[in-house]
Design a protein that fits this description.
It holds the Pfam family ATP-synt_DE_N. It is found in: Cell membrane. Produces ATP from ADP in the presence of a proton gradient across the membrane. One of its GO terms (cellular component) is plasma membrane. This is ATP synthase epsilon chain. 27% of the residues lie in helices and 43% in strands. With 134 residues, the chain is an alpha+beta fold. It has a five-stranded mixed β-sheet, with no helix packed on it. It has a five-stranded antiparallel β-sheet with strand order 4-3-6-7-10. A hairpin with a 2-residue loop joins strand 8 and strand 9. Helix 1 packs antiparallel against helix 2. The longest helix has 19 residues.
């Protein structure tokens, strides 16, 4: 049995991230989920979070927005609205996005509350992706 599996993380306007790993840990609305080699076939949706990819001693933290994971035969396809490696995240931009979303939610006048909540979730996930190592 294989110890690793193939991962493709796909987002509009970006080259797909193609990785081989022993584990991928991400978040759904029901909580954290971990995938390993030889996992049963599954399709599920994710929420904005820091996705952790582990291969031996290598650990990579990647921001992933809302998306869909499809896993079958040791091939995991993760299609999401946005994906950013830790080194690609613009901290200032994420902080400003967070402030804007929080301000909109406080004002609560003529705004799309769900859209503001999603923007806040994405900003917080980006910030947490980079804040652990800094």
């Amino acid at each position: 049995m294989s110890k690793t599996f193939n991962i493709s993380i796909i987002a509009p306007g970006k080259e797909p991230l193609k990785l081989e790993a022993e584990s991928l840990i991400t978040l759904t609305k029901d909580g954290e989920i971990e995938f390993k080699a030889n996992h049963a076939p599954i399709i599920l949706s994710t929420i904005p979070t820091t996705t952790l990819i582990i291969n031996g001693t290598m650990k990579e933290r990647i921001f992933t927005s809302s998306g869909i994971i499809y896993l079958k035969d040791n091939e995991l396809k993760f299609c999401c609205d946005a994906v950013e490696r830790e080194s690609d995240i613009d901290v200032d931009r994420a902080e400003k996005s967070k402030e804007r979303a929080e301000k909109r939610l406080k004002e609560d006048k003529n705004i799309d509350v769900e859209r503001a909540k999603r923007a806040l979730a994405r900003a917080n996930a980006r910030i947490s992706t980079i804040s652990i190592n800094h």
